[in-house]
Design goal:
By secondary structure, the chain is of the alpha+beta class. It has 3 helices and 10 strands.
């Protein structure tokens, strides 16, 4: 098992030339957990033992071997897409989502939140139009949940 305790600081593109790409596909929540065991797309077993507070970003190179490297890809996950009518409404939704300690992403004119019954109830209470989707979730900031 490969144990990763530190992420390489700077990986020049030339360092990856001729190496096989391997990938860890992770949800937003998984990218926030610095200590866990995972399996890459190629089947390589990996143990993350990163410093507390480390968050992995999609596209990050987390390990480089002699003839391979591992990067992070955002997994499609269940989200709710909200299309606010105007900027005032968008700010209100963003405030309420943050007040519930949930992460939020912005994609074009849409606000994206985790597909969660609390978010569904909040959006319905605010009278917002929303739809369920499966998409990579890239929040603009780290929220935290009280139920975990």
């Amino acid at each position: 098992m490969l144990v990763i305790e530190q992420i390489p600081l700077a990986v020049e593109p030339g360092m990856l030339a001729g190496k096989r790409r391997d990938t860890l596909v992770m949800t937003c929540e998984e990218r926030r957990w610095p200590r866990q065991r995972l399996k890459t797309v190629a089947g390589r077993e990996v143990a993350l033992a990163l410093p507390t507070g480390t968050t992995l970003a999609p596209g990050a190179i987390i390990a480089v071997g002699i003839d391979w490297y591992i990067d992070i890809t955002a997994a499609p996950e269940a989200v709710l897409a909200v299309c606010p009518a105007d900027q005032h409404t968008a700010i209100r939704v963003a405030f309420e989502v943050g007040n519930h300690h949930f992460p939020l992403a912005i994609e074009g004119d849409e606000l994206i939140v985790p597909d969660d019954s609390a978010m569904e109830q909040l959006l319905n209470r605010l009278g917002m139009r929303w739809e369920r989707r499966r998409a990579a979730f890239h929040p603009i900031a780290r929220g935290h949940r009280h139920d975990r």
